[in-house]
Amino acid sequence: MSIHRHPSLYFEDGSVVLLLPSTDESLVAYRVHRSLLSAHSEVFADLFTVPSPAVPEKYDGVPLVKLSDNAQDMEHFLNCIYVPRILMTEAITVDSVFVNGAMRLSNKYSVPFIRDFIIEKLEERWPRTYGTWVSRDLEHISLADKYKSLDNATHHGKIDGQYYCDVVGDPASAIRFGVDHNVPSLLPSAFYELSSVDPSLDLDECHTALENGDESREKAILESTKASARWSIIQPKEFRLLIGGMDKLKSHSLTTLGFWFTIPSESCERQGICEEQVSVLRNRRWGRLEYDSILRYFHLAMAIAAADQKICLKCKGVLLKKGRDEALKIWNSLPKDFSIRCLE
Ligand SMILES: [Zn+2]
After folding, report:
1. Ligand 1 mean position to 273 CA, how many Å?
2. Where along the chain do its domains lie?
3. Which of 251, 266, 258 lies closest to 298 in space, CA to CA?
4. For residue 34, how far is its CA from the centre of ligand 1 (angstroms)?
5. What is the pLDDT of residues 122-141, one digit of tens each?
């Protein structure tokens, strides 16, 4: 097999050569610094101090260490160590080849600064808290509006070169990432969001239809402002948990109605008016609820109730508190509802 020296990660003064198989069946050589790798990783430190064979293998005058990891993963991993600002400049998303490669090896070689940085970034999109999730959801709603109002004859469904589905991110990829790299904190919001994706909308099919100038293109552009997912990367076990969680979420829909029936409150200042106005809101169809997302229903309903002028302040206070408590209850029960522990 031919050996290629990596163009940027082959340092003349490097003290060890790492040799790894590449996907194109060649071998890639990285000449790096033992001291630097050892400082970041105990696993590497141990690897370099293991007693070497009687005649240690050498390459280009320095010890050679053969590793079985993927050479491309190693490139991303070493770049994080040698050029840490790459973590600031690369897009940190669950389906990025760079992020997945760096994460795989930072787990294997135990380099927490890479793993921690990536997780912190990803949790901005797949959050731990309900408040952050609502902010993201509101951003997605207004983003979808922007995409819907595009003149597609000129924009072809893209803003700054990106489709809506690519900007919001794929919940199936978030599940894949969370499970494969052992980052369970991403899973509740990822499972929740996947549960409200229309199963007929596949991210890759959407892409193909968008890129092909065929008749289905117009329909695809319209559909592309809805959430879609890469369904094919979800494992059977994850599907079972998804369906189980969806059942639990359905049973929460009674709770959703209960939130409205706390009005009129005991301290209501406009008996009759509040009750009537709340029943109007309760019976209204929420135009933005294109998918069956109970948490979206909650935060939209509460925003509309908060802006309502007819409901008295006392009732509004009760309604908003009750609504938030109920939404939080649903949010906090997501890990249990989707049995996330079965995947850890
Ligand atoms: Zn009232």
Report:
1. 7
2. 3-122, 127-249, 253-334
3. 258
4. 71
5. 999 999 999 999 999 999 99
pLDDT higher than 80, residue 64? yes
Distance of CA 268 from the midpoint of ligand 1 (Å): 4
Ramachandran sector of residue 110 (left: φ over 0; alpha: ψ -120 to 50; beta: rest): left
Distance CA 175, CA 153 (A): 35
The CA 132 to ligand 1 mean position distance, Å, reads 30
Identify whether the C-beta of residue 123 lies closer than 8 Å to the C-beta of residue 93.
Answer: no
Peptide bond into 264 cis (omega under 30): yes
SS3 32: strand
Centre of ligand 1 from the C-alpha of residue 279, in Å: 12
Report whether pLDDT(101) > 90: yes
* Confidence at residue 166, expressed as pLDDT on a 0 to 100 scale: 86
For residues 179 and 343, give the distance between their C-alpha atoms in angstroms, rounded to a whole number. Answer: 7
Over residues 268-291, the pLDDT tens digits come to 999 889 999 999 888 887 665 555
State the distance from the centre of ligand 1 to the C-alpha of 310, rounded, in angstroms.
9
pTM of the model: 0.91
C-alpha of residue 301 to centroid of ligand 1, in Å: 17
Please give the radius of gyration of the chain, using alpha carbons only, rounded to the nearest integer.
26
Question: 64 — phi, psi (to 5°)?
Answer: -110, 130
Q: Which architecture does CATH list for 3-122? A: 2-Layer Sandwich (3.30)
User: Using CA atoms, how far apart are residues 242 and 191, in angstroms rounded to an integer?
Assistant: 7
140-144, Cβ contacts within 8 angstroms, sequence gap of 24 or more: 140/168, 140/227, 141/288, 141/296, 143/167, 143/168, 144/225, 144/226
Distance 271 CA to ligand 1 centre (A): 6
DSSP type of residue 12: T
